[in-house]
UniProtKB/TrEMBL annotation:
It comes from the Bacteria. Keywords: Cell membrane, Membrane, Symport, Transmembrane, Transmembrane helix, Transport. It is found in: Cell membrane. Residues 11-420 form the Major facilitator superfamily (MFS) profile domain. The keyword S-adenosyl-L-methionine does not apply. May be a proton symporter involved in the uptake of osmolytes such as proline and glycine betaine. GO terms for molecular function: symporter activity. Coiled coil: none annotated. This is Putative proline/betaine transporter. The chain crosses the membrane at residues 21-41, 53-71, 83-105, 111-132, 152-171, 183-202, 238-255, 275-292, 304-323, 329-349, 361-378, 398-416. SUPFAM superfamilies: MFS general substrate transporter.
Amino acid sequence: MALMGREHWKTIWVGSAGNMVEWFDWFVYASFATYFAGAFFPDGNPTAQLMNTAGIFAVGFFMRPVGGWLLGRVADRRGRKTALTLTVTLMSASAVLIAIAPTYAVAGYGGAFVLLLARLLQGLSVGGEYAASATYMTEATDPKKRGFASSFQYVSMTVGQLIGLALLIILQRTLSEDALAGWGWRIPFVVGAAGAAVVFYLRRTMLESEVYEESADGDAAVGEKGSLRALWEHRREAFLVVALTMGGTLAYYTYTTYLTKYLSNTAGLPKQTATLVSFCALLVFACVQPLAGALSDRIGRRPMLITFGVCATFLTVPVMTLLSKVDSFWPAFGLALFALVMITPYTALSAVVKAELFPTGVRALGVALPYALANSLFGGTAEYVALWFKDGGIESGFYWYVAACAAVSLVVYVTMRETRDVDLHRVGDGRKSSHERTARLAS
């Protein structure tokens, strides 16, 4: 029986609170990079320093497939609760490492090595976090409200970033530029480590999802649960996850983690103004996620994804071009908000549509590994590729790159099957629920 009422909301809270802290740590690296870039690398070209820190940021993404495989396997074999507790432990350790990392002046490139190690741990953790929380919230909620519940995946991710941006705004207004670059940038990583300790307690007391518990031997033999061999049996769905994620994750990271730097480094807005623009736009973005998730529960996942694909394919270039020319808060805010609303039909459904593709015995791994691969190739490199185009004097090439990736995903959205009415107990066994058969006939 699906969880309802207070228990339903408790499930959403426990599943998303840890995700919030995980992504707070993940995003404050990007948000504070303009301040600590010079701390770990020799003085020189500011763009080159940002490229170095962006490169380390991207390296964290390349650990995500490893984390997706390892922690996805744990989630499928040992339970969602075990995996979720482990991910937040790893994230706490990485936050502590960044907070105490020595600067270039103290240890040369030793500080950059510590930073790299911390990012590898973060990548490992986040690679499993997304899938474990996505499968948990999808399985432990009312089947008719899966889209609504799973939309809190990106709500929590965005709230984590908002807290990071809010902390940045406070520090910008209370510390001098020199103090921020000297030691103030360490504060958010201390906060992240403390938050992870709280979430660790919450997750130790959480309940396992009923769908997982009722799976018993699952859709595969116990020894096959969470294995690559079992995932290979669902390789079509795995490739589908990569393709449908490609455009969405690139657009998301373009308009979130990269946006503040873009407004500051390209449009020429003051850092404080660029940060405030990102904060206000993301606040509205977080509020509309549940609305889009609830709408998908009524009209289906495909229409929402197709809407995103069309908008991102044809509007990315003009939106990014206009953003490069803004000179004050309001035009920047309006365009940033438009861009984030444009990608909402993807972000609100990202978790649920992937989880609905796989059977219980391989659901976490099926979401984790292909999603992490797509993020490594497209999301994690977004900032670095953008700066590479800028450094080469052809910044507009990045806009077309984002639009092209969105176009590839659009083709997938148009051709994929509807997943809204699948029975999570029976996914992958060749049998369909009556609701799904009706949906398939209608499509």
